[in-house]
Write a structure and sequence with these properties.
Layout lengths: L2 H7 L6 E5 L4 E4 L5 E3 L4 E4 L5 E4 L4 E6 L10
Antiparallel strand pairs: 1-2, 1-6, 3-4, 4-5
Length: about 70
């Protein structure tokens, strides 16, 4: 995938699952957790750790399920 396609796929609130050519999956809660640079894609996980991958290694981006808010009792 190229940067333009990745931007298009990540438009919206999320969550998303990004799959790479190596078979890894990255769950992205919101598009703000992804930085799309000229040569790299940086994905921040829920613990604040960063994964850096090449955009050409992204093979799919799929929307995930949103969690429903529950009322506090």
């Amino acid at each position: 995938m190229n940067r333009v396609l990745i931007r298009q796929q990540l438009s919206g609130r999320g969550p998303f699952t990004i799959r790479t050519s190596g078979g890894r999956e990255f769950v992205v809660p919101h598009s703000e957790f992804v930085l799309i640079g000229h040569h790299n894609l940086v994905i921040e996980d829920k613990n604040g750790l960063l994964d850096i991958i090449g955009p050409m290694h992204v093979v799919s981006i799929r929307p995930g399920r949103r969690r429903k808010a529950t009322a506090a009792n």
